[in-house]
């Protein structure tokens, strides 16, 4: 469970509508819930790149193509050979992800919709940070697979600076080569934001930049080797384990359930949220309440060899 570390003043709710004190549990209104999920997608690296699967229940079976049908040369008068594609059924299983945000008891007497609107960006940030950490790095993850472990399991890992004379561009190319040797095609990169400065100056043998930035619809889009690169800016990335991951991110699936549930807590102690005295926040002792929002999401890597990882300089497996 994610517990908010954000300090907020939530005494300024106003407006009309049902008071939160009248409905201490339930679903966040659909429109607000959809907006939160859109914010999660915008803030999450993995949700921008993975293939999204709509879900109406907590589990969903999806067919995955392992090998496609073959084509054959045919001589005059010869019978045409046939083959069948190989499919596998995999199951997406949604896991509950929750955030607890403290607020004053006075907020319970305000309009419910105002409370959710005020908390919307904080709920979204908590969700996408925790999701990226689990899906990309495997940090505190309830999922059976993650992107980093997939690359390692496939043997597609390369340590930055491990080959004398190679620069960062060559090291990234070495990671791409590992994925390609598995008959997979890298289609995008993820990396921690601190790597950006090192990537910007990379050039090929002709002096042409390998790293490019463009603006589309007011949003900066960066690319390396003509492939999009998505930076983790939300603190989810573990820089001790990876600098960059190359892969075909459509070989991973994310399923989301639209409904976001909420519950008002009155007596919890929030271990990761510190009060003014530096101690864990006790809602009962400090005359506060907490809003717990619960989101259900599934993640699965369907092709481990589609990913390769660039380990940081001096990396030693633990």
From TrEMBL:
<dbReference type="InterPro" id="IPR024455">
    <property type="entry name" value="Phage_capsid"/>
</dbReference>
<dbReference type="InterPro" id="IPR054612">
    <property type="entry name" value="Phage_capsid-like_C"/>
</dbReference>
<dbReference type="Pfam" id="PF05065">
    <property type="entry name" value="Phage_capsid"/>
</dbReference>
<protein>
    <submittedName>
        <fullName>Phage major capsid protein</fullName>
    </submittedName>
</protein>
<feature type="domain" description="Phage capsid-like C-terminal">
    <location>
        <begin position="27"/>
        <end position="310"/>
    </location>
</feature>
